[in-house]
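Subject: Predicted fold for histidine kinase, 503 residues

User T.R. writes:
Posting the sequence so we have a shared reference for the thread.
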Amino acid sequence: MESKQIEENKGRLALGISRTVSYIPTIIDAFKTDDPSITIEPIAEKIRKETGAEFVVIGNKDGVRYSHPEKTKLGRKMTGGDNDRALTKGEYYVSKAKGTLGPSIRGKSPIFNKQGEIIGIVSVGFLLEDVNQQITDNIRRVLIVSLFALFISLIGSILLGRNIRKDTMGLEPYQIATLYKEKNAVLHSVKEGILAINQKGYITMMNQQAKELLQLQGSVRNRKVDGLFPSSYLYEVLKTGNAQTDKEMVWNDKTVIVNCTPIMDGKNGIKGVVASFRDKTEIEQMINTISEVKRYSEDLRAQTHEFTNKLYFLLGLLQLGEYKEAIEMIQGETQALQFQNSVVFKQIKDTKIQAILLGKLGKASEKKINFEINTDSYLEAMPAHIKLSNLIVILGNLIDNAFEAVYGSKDPVVKFFATDIGSDIIFEISDNGKGFNEAEISLLFERGYSSKIGTAPRGFGLSNAEQAVLELNGMIEAQSNSESGAIFTVYIPKNVQGDEMVG
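User M.O. replies:
I've generated the structure tokens; pasting them so everyone works from the same file.
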């Protein structure tokens, strides 16, 4: 790099000098005289000495010298074979060539008269030997400074290392790295959220589970804990040094169980607080999922009950000798089942969704609801991250909600559509019920809200469905109008997004 830099600088200097010389009026006018060298040679030598160049050679368009450091070379042709671009094309350039003084870096410039004709050439050069010597001198100076700096750095690193070992309690760097990796592995493997703060209430550590429970994103290191977490217990532990265990509080619509422990330093007292917390609502969600599975089994039981009733009715027809009606009933049921099964089993290829739809078909038949599965529906097997419990909560609640919306109406119809074309899996459940108004849309997925009247606890189905969709990084939309009832559309990504690392 040093060599290339110096050569480029020398080349630019040589070219700049030669260009300047080519513009000197005295030199241009000297070409008109009988012996131009009388005027040109003193000027060229003076410029050479002032600029430190090895030579400043001026020649005519034939390359005959009018100046040279060695007077014996005057009147002879210039050597090196690198004059053509200046004399024929009028170019200004830098070249390397071997001349009478040795290999050199040269700056070449044409000389023009007032008519714009090329009448001569200026060649200014620095010997490569001198350039190499300058490179060697520069590198020697850099090496001396570098060695001195290295010596000072070694002494400083020894002193700094001794000071660091005191702070790290004599542990080697690889031991510290191992402890750090083990700590991170422990923090990310536990189910509970964990965070630590210092004496001033700034967060020094938080694991991914804590960020998820507190609905935080990005790095939270060195941020005040106030507003991000219920901080009253933490400051109380900082003040008293007494641990707080199994404290129950509500945060972001979640019931959280918190344990706080002080970080003690034998010399300086309390250095900070570590808090671990877990979401009590997880147990509630588990209960909700179990109830959804129970509802799913009840749907299957309803389907069994419906077919049992039809079998008893068929048996009665046969006993009465009404064979024609019996045959018509069998044919009608067979056609309906074949049509339904052709869609469910041929186009819906996931066994979990097949089972859910069969159960809902039975329930719809028992409630006298026309449950239609769109013939354009098509699904491959669900990705591994979409569990049966997710599907039961999402589809079970949305379909049951549609059943309740149309139950008791004159011509109850509920439609189901599914597709996995593209990067999302899409479910659409629509009904021809009374729908809902715009004011209700913002309240539909709120926990405990319901537009239906009754004594039993309500308003959890859509909330649970939305929560299950969000857990799969999906989204759910609701549309309605007075003419077409309600439409719920669910979008679930096929691919799992990677977990973010803790900042």
